[in-house]
UniProtKB/TrEMBL annotation:
Gene3D superfamilies: Glycosidases. The record marks H188 as: Plays an important role in maintaining the position of the catalytic nucleophile. Substrate binds at H124, W194, Y261. Belongs to the glycosyl hydrolase 26 family. It is found in: Secreted. InterPro entries: GH, GH26_dom, Glyco_hydro_26, MANB/E. This is Mannan endo-1,4-beta-mannosidase. GO terms for biological process: substituted mannan metabolic process.
Length: 379
């Protein structure tokens, strides 16, 4: 008997086939929730942008470890749509410390997933060769990428670290048993010289070799199928050719990112034209290669400019028909009176941030419904 689908089934089938051609996700075995997130981020980027904040739920200005709290929610009534966490504690520590860190982050990721928010993961990776932090120190740091690549002296140790990440990825299950998708952003700002994996200390060939191994090992060997992989340099490019100088290839990247503080007011210096040009490059690349783009890090420390949100950030994001899935600002330190990037009650930019929040273009957690499914919509 010939199967004749009804209209709803036929439409869903057409959308699935179209999605195969419209989107170029690198993990063909990604969970259905991860595939849906990828697809819905692409949809969002065409007319809106999600707002994100690093470490939003772990701590904020003057507080830490409080259930369902974020500085953004205290100001607007909604958590950010994108919440940043970090895998910095997953190596260079005792097994007990790593397990404790993983348990805290697991709670955070699952809670965000259950609420319908999105987790993005940066990785301030402790140097596995010199056993130091992630910043480069001229007196003692080691250019470790050459040692952790396949065939390198510390490659097996690197595989063990990736196994810790994979174990975490397999652990973040919601109440229905599905895995929470995450946007994984390793080796960020690699074009700078402040991290040990930076361009000054790593050849192009070694960087690409480590990136390709990292993705292939997590995806194909360790069977991590709830990651979307983001590639995000800092600002040392002014053309597409410069941006993709260390690009590992279309089979190893899902999202083109940019970390840019310098053009958006750091140290009182603004170059919005340069910032917009860089965002235009990653947006155009994503369209051309059928992938995603995002403003993966930015912000103005202390936010002394009371109208920065609408007059600097929002105006830029709305320019040139950019297609960016999200914009993420950096963290709010618990104790520092000056190291914060999102407003908190009483901060000078709160009124403008509320205008930013209320603009139909920007989306916060409360604005998105079913982002991990086919029935996704914007409130």
């Amino acid at each position: 008997m010939k199967f004749i689908p009804n209209k709803k089934e036929a439409l869903l089938f057409i959308c699935m086939i179209a999605g195969h051609f419209l989107f170029s996700q690198i993990d063909k075995e990604a969970t259905k929730e991860t595939k849906a997130l990828y697809r819905n981020l692409k949809i969002i980027s065409k007319k809106n942008i999600l707002f994100g904040h690093q470490h939003a739920l772990e701590y904020g200005h003057g507080w830490s470890n409080e259930v369902d709290r974020s500085d953004v929610k205290s100001v607007t009534g909604s958590h950010p749509a994108v919440v940043g966490i970090d895998f910095s504690g997953f190596s260079g520590h005792s097994k007990e410390e790593i397990a404790k860190t993983a348990a805290i982050l697991k709670e955070n990721v699952i809670a965000t997933y259950e609420r319908g928010g999105i987790t993005t993961v940066s990785w301030h990776f402790r140097n596995p060769v010199s056993n130091e932090g992630f910043y480069w120190k001229d007196s003692s740091s080691v250019a470790a990428m050459a040692f952790i690549k396949p065939g390198g002296s510390h490659h097996e140790e690197y595989k063990t670290i990736l196994k810790t990440i994979a174990d975490f990825a397999h652990s973040v299950k919601g109440k229905d048993g599905t895995l929470a998708p995450m946007i994984f952003r390793p080796f960020h700002e690699f074009d700078g010289d402040w991290f040990w994996w930076g361009k000054k200390y790593t050849s192009r060939e070694d960087f690409i070799a480590v990136w390709q191994f990292t993705v292939a090992y997590l995806r194909d060997t360790l069977q991590v199928h709830n990651f979307i992989y983001a590639f995000s340099p800092d600002t040392r490019f002014n053309s597409e050719a410069e941006y993709i100088e260390r690009y590992p290839g279309d089979n190893f990247v899902d999202m083109f990112g940019l970390d840019d503080y310098g053009d958006f007011g750091r140290d009182g210096k603004y170059d919005l034209e340069a910032g917009l040009n860089r965002l235009s490059i990653i947006s155009a690349l994503a369209i051309k290669k059928k992938k995603l783009a995002a403003f993966t890090e930015t912000g103005l420390e202390s936010i002394p400019d009371a109208n920065w949100w609408t007059q600097t950030l929002l105006k830029t994001l709305k320019s040139k028909n950019l297609q960016l899935a999200y914009v993420l600002v950096w963290r709010n330190d618990t104790t520092s009176p000056t190291h914060f990037y999102a407003p908190f009650p009483g901060q000078v930019s709160v009124p403008d941030f509320i205008n930013f929040y209320n603009d139909p273009f920007t989306l916060f957690e409360k604005d998105v419904v079913h982002i991990y499914g086919n029935s996704f919509k914007i409130r």
